[in-house]
Amino acid sequence: MAKTKTVAIVVAMVFSMVVTMAAASSKVRASDPWVARVSPFNAATALPKFNGTLHYNAQFWFLLNQYFDGLPHSYFVPDTFWRSEKYLPTHLHSNPIDGQEAIEDRVCTHFGLNLYDAATWEIALGLQGEFEIPNAYENSVLYASSTGTDNTVGGLADIRSDTSQYLYGRSQIPGSSLQRVTMPGNQTNPIDGSHTIAGAFFFRMISAYYVTEDPLIGSYARSFRSPYPFTGGPAWNTFGVIIWNDWKPITGENVWGAIIGPIQSLYLQNNGSIPSWSNFATAPNQVQLSLSVLPALMALQSVEGSLYHCPSGSQLWPPDENEGQNVSNENNFSGYAAITMLYQLLNNNTNTSNSDLAPAMQDLLSLQQGLQSWFIKYSLAPPLNNSLGARVFYQGGHVNFTGGYYPVSIYSDGGFAVDCQTWGSAVLGANFIDNSIAKKLGTAFNMWQQTKNFSAYYAADGSLAGVGYTIHPLHDIWSGEWTWGAVLATRELSMQYSNMTNCPNCASWAQSLMADSTSMANNLRKTVAQGGLLSESGGFLYCNHRYFIPWGWWANPLPALCSTAWSVMDDHTFNPFVLGGGPLAKFY
Fold it and tell me: pLDDT of 435-469, one tens digit each?
């Protein structure tokens, strides 16, 4: 993003929710619904003023304790879990229990880190005043593109999809042929020893170790023997040593893990006043990291403006024979927020018009404009054929390399995704959804009503407790993480509708949305024994019981890094999709 103030103004006018929230007035009104919850935060300023004080509570301890072996871990898994009634019944896991699918599920859950989870963890720790540990994680893992290269210690030597197996976008560019970028912090490439690396995506999940073990059956399994039945395994593994085997470079995890988390952490630790720079070499390491995935993002931009979900060769699960043309609107919403955040930061902080960052700024603008066009043309499904007649965001589908969008039906298995509705609303905002996409006031409000009809979970007293993942006819699935996203979305929509003029229904919509936001947050914060999702560990459960999510992973009733990090963001009314958290953000 070049020093083009007119461009920034146009973007702000188009998507006022994402771009202008960070710069909006921070004045507090007695009528603001969050004022009663302010203490002990400082509500008089929009900028953080961290002074080295760490603010300990149960959630902060949980997030700290999840950092070990050089990286945070997505779940806290008690030793008894895999033998308990929450997992061991046959219908609650893949079969056979010693098959590769079941083993990989347990290994990833027990030992793995999802990069999206790490991004939320960075932000939450920053909000509590802790930056040294997130910086150590960035420096030793993300900047190095590795969790370890020494054979006696172990690790994943290269955590990027920078090989010829991965083919990016409509040009099917091999990951190894993407534009090379300077390693963040001038680190050394773990493979060739240079200071540059192909600008490919990171893998969505990583581990501290390559040779690992199954927490249930041990270090060996017949299903891991190479060449059969593990046809894709390393040739040396003739005895069936269990190894880390999740190598999927996904857009959503990359825009969070390489952009949103590090950039928000940078903002917080600089108290909102990030020093300016003149070129790539003098830019903060977090900015260099964010720019290192830009070649992959550009390669994955479709002709329709969306971002592709992943490169070909990612081996999605469940399988998708056209995975390289797969699109996910959750990825598109997260991607838009990340791209806007990075564009805003570069535009405001690059102090020369002739910087070597100018091409990157133009690339970001191209991605931004493409996604805006995509949202307007393709994001909303037609009105549903029911009494509400609401419109909801498509989960995704496929975009041919030559053009043309083929969405997944809303009523198909996994065709409706709750996070597309909540994150889409939090990123785009009521004004853009209602007036620019649907051209009908109340569309965003009714989208939320339909989401509840499909996916709401209710507490024993009948109050709204939260949401699940997709259409749940029995309304029996309750996701901690996805409910926190709904808490954010309904709060943001409430604020936006309350500020709309010439809208007879907006006041009642705002009141209804805030009531739902409050009800969900209150129920989440109850302990498990009280019917909530707050565990004795201080972490919030990922889900109320084990459930296979139709997009390829199991939800577990385990304390989760992301659910807990989102709870901390809610403590601070911090919107992670806006640089600095938006005008409601509260800081110590």
Answer: 999 999 999 999 999 999 999 999 999 999 999 99
Q: 222 CB contacts (<8 Å, ≥6 apart)? A: 98, 229, 240
| Cβ atoms of residues 587 and 42 within 8 Å | yes
Q: Is 386 exposed, middle or buried (0-12, 13-18, 19+ CB in 10 A)?
A: exposed
Write the pLDDT tens digit of every residue in 485-542.
999 999 999 999 999 999 999 999 999 999 999 999 999 999 999 999 999 999 999 9
Alpha-carbon torsion 543, 548, 550, 552, what sign? positive
- 281: nearest Cα among 196, 397, 214, 393: 196
Beta 180-182 vs 196-198: how paired, if at all? antiparallel
Q: How many other CB atoms sit within 10 Å of the CB of residue 89?
A: 10
Who's near 68: CB < 8 A, 6+ residues apart? Answer: none
Residue listed under structure tokens 């390693």: 183
Q: Which single residue is written with the structure tokens 């926190």?
A: 484
Q: Name the band, by pLDDT with cuts 50, 70 and 90, for residue 45.
A: low
The answer, yes or no, to whether the previous bond of 229 is cis (omega within 30 of 0) is yes
Query: What is d(CA 388, CA 374) in angstroms, rounded to the nearest whole number?
Result: 25
| Pairing mode, strands 326-328 and 396-399 | antiparallel
Q: Tally Cβ neighbours within 10 Å of residue 220.
A: 16
Q: Which two tokens stand for residue 324?
A: 């390289």
pTM score above 0.85? yes
Residue 50, helix vs strand vs coil: coil
Helices (H), 41-197: 58-65, 100-111, 115-127, 132-137
Q: Which two tokens stand for residue 154?
A: 């172990």
